[in-house]
Automatic annotation (TrEMBL):
Top-level division of the source organism's lineage: Archaea
Chain segments annotated as transmembrane: none
Domain Aspartate/glutamate/uridylate kinase: 102-172
Coiled coil (residue ranges): none
Keyword Protein transport: no
GO molecular function, one term: kinase activity
Alphabetical list of InterPro entries matching this protein: AceGlu_kinase-like_sf, Asp/Glu/Uridylate_kinase, MfnE
SUPFAM superfamilies, per the entry: Carbamate kinase-like
Keywords: Kinase, Transferase
Protein name in the entry: Aspartate/glutamate/uridylate kinase
Length: 196
């Protein structure tokens, strides 16, 4: 399973990673870009420079997450996922260069892209909201084409998920047990995106 740990939960990142570790499942953690990517956005750079700097921002936040888990640096997909590791994605994305060089491709997209390339069918997005809200209500399940254009997940990630046949579960990392419950039981409070 792939778990994308966003910068929005940095204050609870250690506890989230401990939850993931306690499941005993093989998990690859993809870091968000956090404040480091926000700084890149403010710099008003050309698309190529901003793209690669934002990916480096993911590596920087990944190094912070690596203080709680083992780091994985790879420039190809010939690695075996065993245990729990934090992927520093820059080298991998740079080598394959399959994502658009724009802010359309956020860390959500990177997480789904990595899942697709590895043949992993489940991605958990850990963020600071309960899931995706439609008409003011938390949606428990959404088809890919039902995800609102503006929500807590980027639209390219949803398109890639549909392309690769990946399900995305969006949940709140500030609520103890949600990430763990989904990993172990396939059920928790949040929003599951897929094809129904």
């Amino acid at each position: 399973m792939i778990v994308k740990v966003g910068g929005s939960v940095f204050k609870r990142a250690k506890e989230v990673i401990e939850e993931i570790k306690s499941t005993g499942k093989d998990c690859l953690i993809i870091p968000g870009g956090w404040v480091f990517a926000d700084i890149v956005r403010l710099m008003d750079l050309d698309d190529d420079t901003a793209h690669w700097m934002a990916l480096k921002a993911m590596d920087v936040y990944g190094l912070y997450l690596s203080s709680f888990a083992e780091t994985l640096e790879a420039d190809d997909f010939n690695f075996k996922l065993e245990g729990m590791k934090v992927l520093l994605p820059y080298s991998l994305v740079r080598k394959y260069d399959e994502l658009p060089h724009s802010w359309e491709a956020t860390s959500d997209s990177v997480a789904v892209w990595v899942a697709g390339k590895l043949g992993i069918r489940k991605v958990v997005k850990v963020t600071d909201v309960d899931g995706i809200f439609v008409n003011g209500k938390l949606a428990e399940k959404l088809n890919y084409d039902e995800v609102p254009e503006k929500s807590c997940i980027d639209s390219l990630a949803v398109k890639l998920a549909e392309k690769f046949g990946v399900e995305i579960f969006v949940c709140n990392g500030f609520v103890r047990g949600r990430v763990k419950n989904y990993i172990l039981r396939g059920s928790a409070v949040g929003t599951l995106i897929g094809r129904w």
